Amino acid sequence: MSHDPDSAAGGERSRLFVYNGGFLTQRRIRRILSLAGYDLRLGLPGPSDMVGIWGNSPTAHRGRAVAARRNAPLLRVEDAFLRSLHPGRLGEPPLGLLLDRSGVHFDPAAPSDLETLLATHPLDDTALLNRARGATERMRELHLSKYSAFDPEAPVPQPGYVLVVDQTRGDAAVTASGGDEALFREMLVFAQEEHPGARVIIKTHPETAAGHRSGHYTSQDATRRVTLVDQPVSPWALLEGAVGVYTLSSQFGFEAILAGHKPRVFGQPFYAGWGLTQDERPLPRRQRHLTRAQLFAAAMLLYPTWYDPYRDRLCELETVLDTLEALTRAWRQDHRGWTASGMRLWKRRPLQKMFAQQKKIRFVEAPDPTDPRPHMCWANRAGDRDGVVRVEDGFLRSRGLGAELVPPVSLVTDDLGIYYDPTRPSRLEALIAARETLRPDQQLRAERLVARLTEGGLSKYNLGGAVLPDLPEGHRILVPGQVEDDASIHKGAGTIRTNLDLLRTAREANPEAVIIYKPHPDVEAGLRTGDIAPTDLADVIASGTDPAALLMQVHEVWTITSLTGFEALLRGVKVTTLGAPFYAGWGLTTDLGQVPARRGARPSLMGLVHAALIDYPRYLDPVTGLPCPVEVAVERLSAGHIPHPGLANRLLSKLQGTFATYAHLWR
């Protein structure tokens, strides 16, 4: 049943006696059980103890026998419906477990806790059902399934086919539903007879395709009309093109329901019997009719025990979706490996950590057009080349400057252009346009993220700073200085291209305002160019101050292309741009520069936030070393749990500061 994600191991606990080595050798399973209140033990249970078994596995009979002799209740343990990238046989730990005190969800011999939920829980809470709808859409959008190590862009057959779902021989879910060779043959015949003339696609089980266990269909079942799909493809993409779905008891049938199908079911899985399937063998005790959202709420929100690997605690499904979003994005981008060019030596180790979870990056002088691996290049060294993925620092980068060689916790990848170059489309522009309308769950996630950023005083570099000076009363305008030879100025500035001209323009347009000039931290550190001589154009020079704290004291920001403008928007501060930064042109800023006409969408601020901070960057958790969602990166930055440069990098950064004019040689 559902567990409080904030529950601690010190609450009411049960001793759980187990007789399957997997409970003891698999650390993640032990940890989830411990967090859920179960202490694993060997030996014989007492009157108040429980016996744990793994579903209907071949070893489950041991636990059942002991439980029967000792009159001890059983806890049946299974993988949750969103498990991991790869099957457990490949050694990847699960992100959740199903802990059932009544039965096994796939075995209709006795009602499970899940069946009881589906039969008796009101499932009428508006907030719960809204969560279910939002999570379903996220699974569809992110192409998430029980195992999600597949490329969503992998080709699937042309639409109009009937989908028949295979399962592995001897699988407990097949046996529990009375499945055998004859029943799978019957299912294939029904699919052809009930859809005369339609193509039939047999979806092979992932473990069969990986060579771990055989299925019920082989290449001998292929005909002119019947085709096997044994390559890893997105279930959601397959379901989108299907006109009918046939299954015995596969989880694929559950996903078919979520995708809008009414599958033909030949077994008695947990999702059959609730009015959402065509049942060949109805289960008389299941009489209730449910909606898709109600089925999802019970099976995905209330029933499983979910685990957060970053914070080492139980969690809600939404956190698991955040986790899988980060893990699948990294795997899908990286599983073929990368080649890379234009990467300075000090950047290569952080790049390997970020992009080499699967295979090491091969650094080369130039891309090889015959190499099947994608090629990445640091953005300012890619020029106008097509066919390369440009890489840059993310908008929540680190606690420390890139010019001081502090490694980043976020990087962006762009297969179209790069965010700071308005002369060509970028992937970020496409993402912003796509977020013109947000679902309620997306809106809520973005709002919570903005609250964490503003409450935590986070910005790109999170340097902290001196106590703010006493600021004069009046309409305060912050003018953030920029690195004048930065690529964002070269590409995104208009006629105003220097800090002095920016100040002059802001003063001329606002003669009565209090102008506060904040030098760029790279310039203050002596690492980049852009310093200006003392000037009376500014009323206050806010050197060494925390930009996040400063933004809370001003009414307006004037900038060329600085990220401070974006950070100001997050805090409700009006922004005027004189260049074309990524956040300009969407109706959220006053734009005095030339912005691309193609930026015609009108997203809300939360739409911009979702695109720029959730969809676009990749984040790496410096604690676990795993790809992570933005929320984890924000927590690490807030707590200071981030990497710092080694001695060699610190010495190199000081040397670079001596030659700041030549920064292009190492950046």
Key terms for this structure?
elongated; 7-stranded mixed beta sheet; alpha/beta; 667 residues
What oligomeric state do these chains adopt?
single chain
Described by the principal axes of the CA atoms, the overall outline is: elongated
* Major sheet details: 7 strands, mixed
> Per DSSP, what share of the residues sits in E-state strands of 2 or more residues?
15-25%
Provide a count of the helices.
23
Q: Classify the helix fraction into a percent range.
A: 25-40%
End-to-end Cα distance, whole Å, is 53 Å
* DSSP summary, beta strand count: 26
Low-confidence sequence ranges: 647-667
Mean pLDDT: 92
- From the helix content, strand content and strand pairing, which structural class follows? alpha/beta
**Which value, in Å, is the CA radius of gyration?**
29 Å
Question: Strand sequence of the main sheet, in spatial order?
Answer: 2-1-3-4-5-12-13
Q: Care to give the gist of this entry?
A:
It is built from 23 helices and 26 strands.
Description:
The protein is of the alpha/beta class and 667 residues long. Helix content is 33%, strand content 15%. The strands form four sheets. It has a seven-stranded mixed β-sheet with strand order 2-1-3-4-5-12-13, with helices on both faces. The chain has a seven-stranded mixed β-sheet with strand order 15-14-16-17-18-25-26. The C terminus is likely disordered.
Blueprint (SSEs and pairs):
Layout: E1 14-18, H1 21-25, H2 27-35, E2 38-41, E3 50-54, H3 60-70, E4 74-79, E5 96-100, H4 113-120, H5 126-142, E6 161-165, H6 172-176, H7 181-193, E7 200-203, H8 206-209, E8 226-229, H9 235-240, E9 242-247, H10 251-258, E10 264-265, E11 278-279, H11 292-302, E12 305-308, E13 313-315, H12 317-334, E14 339-341, H13 345-355, E15 362-363, E16 375-378, E17 389-393, E18 410-414, H14 427-434, H15 440-456, E19 476-480, H16 487-492, H17 499-509, E20 514-518, H18 521-524, E21 540-541, H19 547-551, E22 556-559, H20 564-570, E23 574-577, E24 590-591, H21 605-615, E25 617-620, E26 627-628, H22 630-639, H23 647-658
Parallel strand pairs: 1-2, 1-3, 3-4, 6-7, 6-9, 7-8, 9-10, 10-11, 14-15, 14-16, 16-17, 19-20, 19-22, 20-21, 22-23, 23-24
Antiparallel strand pairs: 4-5, 5-12, 12-13, 17-18, 18-25, 25-26
